[in-house]
């Protein structure tokens, strides 16, 4: 007997289905729920139109400070009592702020979800926001950001973002602010942000065994005391393309690796080319077998990993590549990376590469969406981008049917290798001359 | 107001489990669940960095990389392409105890995953080339730079292991290993490593998800049945230690870190013992969440520690007394002595101030949610069953962990806390360079 030499054929595919979605209007708010019969855990998330884009200039980080303040006690109990009540149910609040939304969520055994949602809403709607607590949390957040910014990456990200969106624009500043802007946040910034944006009902997302959950009860708790109309959605920002490639050098003396961040502007999430754009990025730098990972990691051994993607929000998108490479190979790694982007833009993708990208992305819809938390996240995408209830089955079908011609056309149209901003965070003294010799673009010293 | 406790679970594993053993010794575990059209395939090989002799550190982990680089019937890079091309996700990890390989796929691709796993279990050596070895050595060196060398406090775990376990102990060296050892070894050494440990009788194969046990057992026989048993697999060096450390050890590192930080560490009990269950609950009471003693007393109360960087946790190692690690980072203007003393006082309080009912219920509720979160994916279930089969000989024993945590009493925690005395403690301190230090 010996090993089986030939690759087995797949069995018959099980039909794909996204969990049944139920919608309800309760107590002035909207609930979007997914039914997961038999699941022992359940998730709930309050989705509020209060993303980082709503922060005041120079005070970037306000929403993050507010998110942390939600657990510093409510109008009815102090922070220690709140922590014990919530964690006594086995729940921990997860708060997150992105460009489009402010989310407060939790996952717990299904039997205690209604009690957990009541506590979640108590924190989101009626936080104590004692001025001394807000100032302390603000200082802690500024310190935590300083800790984070001591690691490689955040400064390079900030340099890229400022270059692509403009240092004076909110979208040109870091999503979570920087240590300086966070330190500048005042108590009034935080209370005003809460008053303006967190008292609107928003949308409650629920994922769990709906036979064991009462949506009316959950909605009544989530929307109690809220009011105000949904906010208007502003249009996309467009896709300006730079006239030439440029290289921003961020000095990190003594660094044993160079952190690479490459990028340019791209369309927003609702753009009709979303599926072919996603597939092009998967071939270029999404899958482990992508062109970039194959060349830079598997062939050259320059890095532990490299990836490319299109990050797309309601109003803008950006194409980006990120990696960390050994200092001595910074210039060749960068040259090879730009080369692969240019090749993909020019020649498109092959059917062989695309077939992997297609089935991977389609399969991921089943593989990645097993838990109530991930299903609640999928519901958030529907709400934020105004997508229909049959979106995921439709997306799966489109992923599987998109042709190489369509994906190559999207790569040709949406990749701009000659307009890239190349950010290199590393030991400038060791790499500057080599980067200049590589002639990848004008070198600018970044003072991030 | 105290919360009503979450209901006590009678079992932590309410799904069916069936097992079989192939003639070559491969243990096969199946847990059927038709909820979603996906399957998880998980293999534990009973080889980790604890098996590495002096001069061969980092081998187990480098081997994990080589297992993705092609085998007898799978060309280089095809492994990843086939799994992702089937819509699957995959990875592998190495720790001191073991190496695991796992993928989750749409259920119709189960056979592909078993074929790939069998081919690299039974047919890796003929495909292993010098070029692949050289390339993956460079990738691992970059992994070390990215994870440990280029990050503030990144080498804390490496240093703590050396301080916690005596030279020659299987946990003394870190899994990432020494780059000198990796450079020094030739292709034959790695081929020999595979031949020695990657054997059907040294592995557990678990499949969880949308499939019947009968199908899995037949496919396991079809793909793995031909692989030969390996006789005389060398055991790891003994992890036995005569007891807790008898004198305190301290190390101070001055470097490019943004704030002073302290780690206190103790050797406790092996994962899977009643003693370690008590440590797990103790660590949760002490340092998990905003309601924990460390957070309440040092981040919220005395306000000497940064709230995002305080906590305690056990590292679940099973072949010697496992580490309990407690850490805190100073707020601006707080000196390291104040911080270290504060943390030590809170640790001491676990023995002197009885854990209250509310503290205990909070910890158990958090552990319960964490357990069900691990069980909420087929991949999490498969990894758990592989662990309990490898380490305790019976996948069904996974069901006991949650009830055992729930049965820990405040007296058990006080008993465990009394062993965390300063005489057996490792203290690792980081100080920023320059005037702040």
UniProtKB/TrEMBL annotation, chain A:
It comes from the Bacteria. Residues 34-164 form the Peptidase M16 N-terminal domain. Residues 185-358 form the Peptidase M16 C-terminal domain. Gene3D superfamilies: Metalloenzyme, LuxS/M16 peptidase-like (3.30.830.10). One of its GO terms (molecular function) is metal ion binding. Pfam families: Peptidase_M16 (PF00675), Peptidase_M16_C (PF05193). This is Peptidase M16. It comes from Winogradskya consettensis.
């Amino acid at each position: 007997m010996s090993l089986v030499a030939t690759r087995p054929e797949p069995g018959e595919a099980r039909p794909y289905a996204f969990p049944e979605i139920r919608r309800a209007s309760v107590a002035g708010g909207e609930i979007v729920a997914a039914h997961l019969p038999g699941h022992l855990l359940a998730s709930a998330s309050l989705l509020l139109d209060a993303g980082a884009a709503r922060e005041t200039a120079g005070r970037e980080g306000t929403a993050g400070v507010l998110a942390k303040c939600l657990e510093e006690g409510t109008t009815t109990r102090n922070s220690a009592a709140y922590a014990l009540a919530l964690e006594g149910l086995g729940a921990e609040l997860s708060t997150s702020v992105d460009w489009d939304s402010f989310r407060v969520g939790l996952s717990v055994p299904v039997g205690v979800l209604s009690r957990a949602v009541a506590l979640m809403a108590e924190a989101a709607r009626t936080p104590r926001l004692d001025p001394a607590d807000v100032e302390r949390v603000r200082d802690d957040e500024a310190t935590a950001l300083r800790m984070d910014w001591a690691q490689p990456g955040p400064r390079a990200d900030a340099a890229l973002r400022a270059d692509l969106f403009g240092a004076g624009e909110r979208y040109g500043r870091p999503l979570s602010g920087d240590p300086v802007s966070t330190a500048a946040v005042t108590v009034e910034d935080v209370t005003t942000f809460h008053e303006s944006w967190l008292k609107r009902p928003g949308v409650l997302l629920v994922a769990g065994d709906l036979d064991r959950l009462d949506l009316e009860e959950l909605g009544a708790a989530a929307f109690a005391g809220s009011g105000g109309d949904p906010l208007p959605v502003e249009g996309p920002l467009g896709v300006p393309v730079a006239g030439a490639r440029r290289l921003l050098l961020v000095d990190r003396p003594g660094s044993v690796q160079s952190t690479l961040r490459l990028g340019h502007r791209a369309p927003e999430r609702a753009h009709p080319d979303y599926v072919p754009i996603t597939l092009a990025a998967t071939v270029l730098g999404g899958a482990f077998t992508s062109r970039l990972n194959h060349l830079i990691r598997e062939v050259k051994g320059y890095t532990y990993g490299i990836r490319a993607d299109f990050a797309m929000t309601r109003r803008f998108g950006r194409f980006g590549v990120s990696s960390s490479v050994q200092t001595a190979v910074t210039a060749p790694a960068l040259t090879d990376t730009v080369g692969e982007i240019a090749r993909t833009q020019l020649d498109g993708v092959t059917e062989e590469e695309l077939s992997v990208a297609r089935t991977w992305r389609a399969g991921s819809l089943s593989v990645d969406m097993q838990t109530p938390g991930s299903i609640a996240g999928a519901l958030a995408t529907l709400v934020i981008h105004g997508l229909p209830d049959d979106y995921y089955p439709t997306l799966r079908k489109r992923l599987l049917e998109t042709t190489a011609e369509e994906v190559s056309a999207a790569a040709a149209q949406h990749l701009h290798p000659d307009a890239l901003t190349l950010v290199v965070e590393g030991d400038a003294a060791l790499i500057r001359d080599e980067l200049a010799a590589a002639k990848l673009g004008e070198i600018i010293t970044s003072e991030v | 107001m105290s919360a009503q406790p979450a209901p006590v679970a009678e079992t932590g594993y309410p799904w069916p489990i069936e097992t079989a053993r192939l003639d070559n010794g491969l243990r096969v575990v199946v847990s059927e669940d038709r909820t979603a059209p996906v399957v998880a395939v998980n293999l534990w090989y009973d080889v980790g960095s604890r098996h590495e002799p002096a001069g061969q550190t980092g081998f187990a982990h480098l081997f994990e990389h080589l297992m993705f680089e092609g085998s007898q019937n799978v060309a280089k890079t095809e492994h990843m392409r086939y799994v992702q091309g089937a819509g699957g996700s995959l990875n592998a990890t190495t720790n001191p105890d073991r190496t695991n390989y796992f993928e989750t796929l749409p259920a119709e691709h189960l056979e592909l995953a078993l074929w790939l796993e069998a081919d690299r279990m039974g047919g890796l050596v003929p495909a292993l080339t010098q070029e692949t070895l050289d390339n993956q050595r460079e990738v691992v060196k970059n992994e070390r730079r990215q994870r440990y060398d280029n990050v503030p406090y990144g080498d804390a775990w490496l240093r703590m292991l050396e301080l916690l376990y005596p030279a020659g102990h299987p946990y003394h060296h870190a899994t990432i290993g020494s780059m000198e050892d990796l450079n020094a070894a030739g292709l034959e050494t790695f081929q020999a490593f595979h031949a020695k440990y990657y054997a059907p009788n040294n592995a557990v194969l678990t499949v969880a998800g949308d499939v019947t046990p009968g199908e899995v057992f037949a496919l396991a026989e079809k793909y793995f049945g031909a692989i030969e048993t390996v006789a005389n697999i060398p055991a790891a060096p003994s992890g036995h230690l005569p007891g807790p450390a008898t004198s305190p050890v301290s190390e101070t590192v001055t470097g490019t870190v943004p704030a002073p930080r302290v780690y206190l560490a103790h050797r406790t009990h092996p994962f899977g013992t009643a003693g370690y269950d008590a440590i797990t609950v103790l660590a949760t009471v002490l340092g998990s969440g905003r309601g924990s003693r460390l957070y309440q007393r040092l981040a919220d109360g005395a306000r000497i520690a940064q709230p995002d960087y305080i906590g305690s946790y056990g590292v679940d190692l099973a072949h010697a007394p496992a580490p309990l690690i407690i850490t805190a980072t100073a707020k601006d203007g707080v000196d390291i002595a104040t911080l270290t003393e504060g943390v030590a006082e809170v640790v001491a309080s676990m023995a002197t101030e009885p854990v209250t009912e509310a503290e205990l219920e909070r910890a158990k509720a958090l552990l319960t949610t964490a357990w069900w979160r691990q069980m909420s994916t087929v991949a999490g279930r498969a990894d758990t069953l592989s662990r309990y089969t490898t380490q305790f000989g019976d996948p069904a024993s996974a069901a006991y962990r949650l009830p055992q945590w729930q049965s820990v009493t405040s007296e058990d925690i006080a008993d465990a806390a009394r062993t965390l005395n300063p005489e057996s403690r490792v203290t690792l301190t980081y100080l920023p360079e320059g005037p702040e230090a």
